[in-house]
Amino acid sequence: MDKALKTAIHYLWDHQNESSHAQKAFTESLKRAGTVLADGTLNLASITDENDRWAIFRGLVNVRDSYQPSEEYLMAEGAVLQAKLGSAATPVLWQESQLNQRIFLWQGDITRLKVDAIVNAANKDGLGCFIPNHHCIDNTIHTMAGAQVRTDMALALNGRKLPVGKVIVTKAYNLPAKFIFHTVGPVIYKEPVSKMNQDLLASCYLNSLKEADARGLSTIAFCSISTGEFHFPKALARDIAIQTVQDYLKETDSSLQVVFNVFLDEDLALYQKVLIN
Amino acid sequence: MRKLANYLWVEQNEDEFTFIMTPELQDDIGTVGYVEFIANDGDQIEKDQAILNLEASKTVLELQAPLAGTITAINKAAEEAPEQLNSEKAEASWVYKMTGVDQAAYDQLPEA
């Protein structure tokens, strides 16, 4: 078994916190699967499937507390993630919009994008997703960037929540991007969507664009904020996203290049309708 | 008569202006569980300056000042009992009072 992965898994396992609900639940699932030995250590030798080993690593990363990981762990984690990440998606792969030559569309995994900043659809706790192996964008970005992101967010938030529409920046560590912009979109409980929630979604985009320019960045990639588990209607969210970016590029002297990153075919079709024709 | 700006009602009584939670805002955020008054009594506030952090059942929100002026009163009772910001009574669900407001700036706000 890969030495780096083994080192990372054992480190995370040894730094579990008995009072953490997420960690207890994940440990129980590993016990049920027969992965935990009687002395409380992990029986990794019994896991022969590469995907199963990855899932144990990812699950432990997802449920971990926001302590500062050791240098040794970060080295091992870096080796694991670099092997997993593969090649980056550079501008030659992006589709240029007919609306504005600085707006692009790209379908794929946002963690592969080589841009200055990717925007993460975070939640109000700002610490990433704690559900083991959950395939939401927050979980994917935190996992693939590395454990340091949660630690950095905990330091930046200092016990506070992340208000909707605001942005907190961390480094992107193992990703091809330089920075992660963590923003929280509004959660929609009923339609029609209120003016405030429409404004708040626009704020996610606007504050990210301003932050990118304040840092002198050249490229930023947005995911479809709020449209997944936050239930913002997709077509309206797309219209707000594109309008906010277009207005910003028109009304400021910004030279940013903006990528709309979609993951699902349904979202690709929605954005193509407006951006590409 | 009340005005509406930055999702808050603004009510004028002579030279004093009170910011009050609106039913739409209460509905959007759900039950308030925690309130942090960012501005202090006597502070000079710019329009759109952050004045309030709310943690509620549906969201976490920062609210900005609807007008520029000087803070003269803060609904500190809401720190102990945040759910009173969900009240339909303005005497419970107000957040700040302000003086030194430009009357023309107030008059230009949309009516509630």
Short description:
In chain A, 44% of the residues lie in helices and 12% in strands. Chain A has 277 residues and is of the alpha/beta class. Chain A folds into two domains: 3-85, no CATH class; 91-122 and 162-275, Leucine Aminopeptidase, subunit E, domain 1.
Key terms:
A: 277 residues, alpha/beta, Leucine Aminopeptidase, subunit E, domain 1, 2 domains, 7 strands, 12% strand, B: 112 residues, OB fold (Dihydrolipoamide Acetyltransferase, E2P), six-stranded antiparallel β-sheet
User: How much helicity do the residues of chain B have?
Assistant: 10-25%
Largest sheet of chain A: 7 strands, mixed
Please give the share of residues in helix of chain A: 40-55%
Query: Could you give the order of the helices and strands of chain A?
Result: HHHHEEEHHEEHEHEH
- Which outline of chain A best applies? elongated
Q: Major sheet of chain B: order of its strands?
A: 1-2-3-9-8-5
End-to-end Cα distance of chain A: 49 Å
Structural class of chain A: alpha/beta
Poorly predicted runs of chain A are: none
As a percent range, the share of strand residues of chain B is: 35-45%
CATH class of chain B: Mainly Beta
Number of continuous helical runs of chain A: 9
Describe this structure as you would to a colleague.
The complex is a heterodimer of chains A (277) and B (112). Chain A has helices spanning 3-14, 21-32, 50-63, 71-85, 137-145, 148-157, 195-214, 234-251, 265-275, and strands spanning 95-96, 103-107, 117-121, 167-171, 179-183, 219-222, 257-262. The N and C termini of chain A lie far apart (49 Å). Chain A contains 9 helices and 7 strands. The longest helix of chain A is centred in the C-terminal third of the chain and has 20 residues, at 195-214. Chain A has 277 residues and is of the alpha/beta class. Chain B has one domain (2-108): RNA polymerase II/Efflux pump adaptor protein, barrel-sandwich hybrid domain (OB fold (Dihydrolipoamide Acetyltransferase, E2P)). Chain B is 19% helix and 43% strand. Chain B has helices spanning 23-29, 77-80, 90-93, 103-108, and strands at 2-5, 8-13, 16-21, 32-37, 44-45, 50-56, 60-64, 69-74, 94-99. In chain B, the strands form 2 sheets. Chain B has a 6-stranded antiparallel beta sheet. Chain B is globular and about 35 Å long.
